[in-house]
Design goal:
99 residues; alpha+beta; Alpha-Beta Plaits; two-stranded antiparallel ribbon; 3 helices; 35% strand
Length: 99
């Protein structure tokens, strides 16, 4: 397996109504690299966002959905989602402040 850098782990934030409501409890949702582990995700969040301390990380693997166009079948890309819980004394992630 190739060496993954912390900036390759966090792909993009997930902005849904459910994830926005969870931000009140200092839970932030990200789409991450499928081969990333929980410890790598924790390290990446702490390095990318200053003043943050991660309490725990929950991950979910999603398989691609089967889609159809006429008689042709295909699959969408699989992905991994991570919900990061910050500690009580941690700074908030500024990326989500204006939302």
């Amino acid at each position: 397996m190739a060496d993954i850098k912390y900036y390759d782990i966090i792909l993009k934030p997930v902005l849904t109504e459910k994830s926005m409501n969870a931000m009140a409890e200092k839970k932030y949702t990200f789409k991450v690299a499928p081969e990333a582990t929980k410890s790598q995700i924790k390290e990446a969040v702490e390095k990318m966002f200053d003043g943050t301390k991660v309490a725990k990380v929950n991950t979910m693997n999603y398989d691609g959905k089967t889609k159809r166009r006429g008689m042709t079948f295909g699959k969408t890309a699989k992905f991994k989602k991570a919900v990061v819980q910050l500690t009580a004394d941690s700074a908030d992630i500024e990326l989500f402040e204006g939302l």
